[in-house]
Write a structure and sequence with these properties.
4 helices; 3-stranded antiparallel sheet; 201 residues; 8 strands; alpha+beta; 5-stranded antiparallel sheet; 3 domains
């Protein structure tokens, strides 16, 4: 269904003035199926077709939606593939798996059974791998959320440390005032103890 405001791409040449690949913009759709559209440079020219003609000559341009920030399975799998693992059996019935992530952070999980006769190290390791993977999801989600939060704060502060914004989140912060005394933008500030220095993140 074609609606007002839709963009259509030409899939079959329309007379001499609309070639394949050209994009037109729908400006009006009447109840009886007459479609008006603008085309050409700056959409300065106008054309009219009925619905059947439009469907023969045009295809709707699907606008790509910007993907929302998220952690995906491929990303977690890559982290797991680049991690180091050590597997140990303790007390004949408990599997302990330690994982060193690529950045050096270590996660340890364990899986145990009641009777040593039922113990299977491979099964225990598999359970631990899944738990470690879930923990990595949690840690990476926190890291991304923290990044987005800091980014929103910097945007709100206009990321200049000018202190002139009435809504600046930093206005009442003594440490921020001290930062302002340097007459430096935060990105240029060499004081690594400064909480507004983006170089510390």
């Amino acid at each position: 269904m074609i609606n007002n405001g839709d963009k259509l791409v030409v899939v079959k040449k329309v007379a001499p003035f609309l070639n394949e690949g050209d994009v037109v913009k729908v400006t009006n759709v009447t109840e009886d199926g007459i479609i008006s559209f603008a085309f050409g440079d700056g959409f300065m020219h106008m054309g009219v077709m009925n619905t059947t003609e439009c469907e023969n000559h045009f295809k709707k341009v699907e606008e790509k939606k910007e993907e929302a920030p998220a952690i995906n399975e491929e990303y977690i799998a890559e982290i797991m593939e680049n991690s180091e693992f050590e597997i140990a059996t303790v007390f004949d019935k408990c599997t302990v798996v330690s994982c060193r992530l690529p950045n050096g952070f270590v996660i340890t999980e364990y899986a145990a059974c009641v009777s040593p006769e039922n113990y299977d190290e491979d099964m225990g390791a598999e359970i631990c791998f899944e738990r470690i993977s879930n923990k990595v999801w949690e840690l990476e989600a926190y890291r991304l959320q923290q990044h987005l939060w800091e980014e929103s704060l910097m945007n709100k502060c206009n990321s200049t440390c000018s202190g002139n914004c009435e809504d600046c989140i930093c206005d009442d912060d003594e440490e921020f005032d001290e930062c302002l005394d340097t007459d430096l933008d935060c990105d240029d500030c060499e004081d690594f103890d400064c909480p507004w220095n983006s170089n510390t993140r």
